[in-house]
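Before a colleague's protein record goes any further, I have to sign it off. Thanks in advance; the entry in question is below:
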Amino acid sequence: MAVVPELILEQVINGLLVGSFYIILSLGLSLIFSLGGVVNLAHGAFYAVGAYLAFEVEKRLGFFGAMALSPVGVALMVGEQALRMIWGTTGLPFSIPDALRGQLHVGGFIYSYYRLTILLVTAATVAGCWLLLNKTAFGMIVRAGVRDSEMVRAMGISLRPALTAVFALGVSLAALAGVMSAPLAGVQPAMGNEILTATFVVVVIGGLGSFWGVVLAGLLVGVVRGITLYFYPPVAEASMYLLMILVLLFRPRGLMGEKFERFE
């Protein structure tokens, strides 16, 4: 097979695009686990709910209104069967907003403006979460609670409000990922289950409790999947599992995983 540089570049960027969904979902999942010690198995449902709420909000306030309000609206745990009861079992179309239609042309390379926008939104989201966790009083409490929750409680600081806020942030990130994926993949009830497994894989590869580990793992999984899809499509979906096995053989805690004494 002839190697076409433009096509390889496109697959790499597509991999980054897929990785961006993994990153946003995995950050929320990792944050919830790090502070609360809870593996949120409903995380995929929040991803799907975000997409469905965006489908409804977009009719009235447009895509950007849906992107702003849908994550906020995902406040209750909603299962897949409830989505089927409200919106039916068939997939729903969700169009790319007119303002983001069109393609970027650079030489022989062509890429969608909407996909590039997703990459930018993901970068902004990662930066915003990092600033929140590292440059605010709230972030200081969260990081202290992750390191030594007993010490924080001994200082008279309740972790319950922080845990509630972290959970809200986590599910909002899941909803945001669902909103951004809707114009590309459509909206259907099982969409959360389909991506949840990949999200867990990214968290495991990156390492529990590691912010940048999750970001690195999401990018790595996406790029490896994109390149594999170009050279040998049959194993593209399995590539992330092979990558996880390889990482865990040499780094059982993940790429940048931290030690949590209360879990060991």
